[in-house]
Design a protein that fits this description.
The longest helix has 12 residues. The chain starts with 17 loop residues before the first helix and ends in a 10-residue tail after the last strand. It has a domain of about 90 residues: Signal recognition particle alu RNA binding heterodimer, srp9/1 (2-Layer Sandwich), CATH 3.30.720.110. By secondary structure, the chain is α+β, with helices and mostly antiparallel strands. Strands 1-4-3-2 form a four-stranded mixed β-sheet, with helices on one face.
């Protein structure tokens, strides 16, 4: 049976001013747009030993995982330095919804973008054989 092999892209509409949202993602998460209007995130640039992976998950209808967002989705961004990103966010007086937290597979924190979408930030740990998912 044919199957998907990965996530080819993430596309979503801005609920407000696109230019302001683009600037927010650039300032706080370092996402720079190409001339064609999108960004390319390359796995080979990732420093985690897992070589890059993407988790796909369907939450229960009653899940509070995405709260306080009303959006039916949440994007998890892999980051190379969670504390540096959170420091920039704190310094500008923005809210960190939850975290940072350390788990067996890395550090996590959750923030909201200007459109009210909850964002999960993940700094993967250096993987070893007993911690690999694959």
């Amino acid at each position: 049976m044919a199957k998907i092999t990965g996530i080819g892209g993430i596309f979503f509409k801005s609920k407000s001013d696109r230019a302001s949202l683009v600037e927010w993602y650039k300032k706080y998460l370092g996402i720079n747009l190409e001339d064609w209007g999108g960004a390319i995130l390359r796995w080979e640039d990732d420093k985690a030993e897992d070589g890059g992976l993407t988790v796909w998950h369907i939450a229960e209808k009653e899940s509070q995982w995405f709260s306080p967002s009303e959006s039916p989705f949440m994007i998890n961004y892999r980051v190379d330095n969670l504390e540096e990103i959170l420091e920039k966010i704190r310094n500008d007086g923005l809210e960190i919804v939850q975290g940072p937290e350390s788990h067996e597979n890395g550090k996590f924190a959750w923030i909201m973008d200007p459109d009210g979408n909850k964002i999960e930030l993940w700094e993967p740990k250096a993987w070893d054989e007993k911690n690999k998912y694959i």
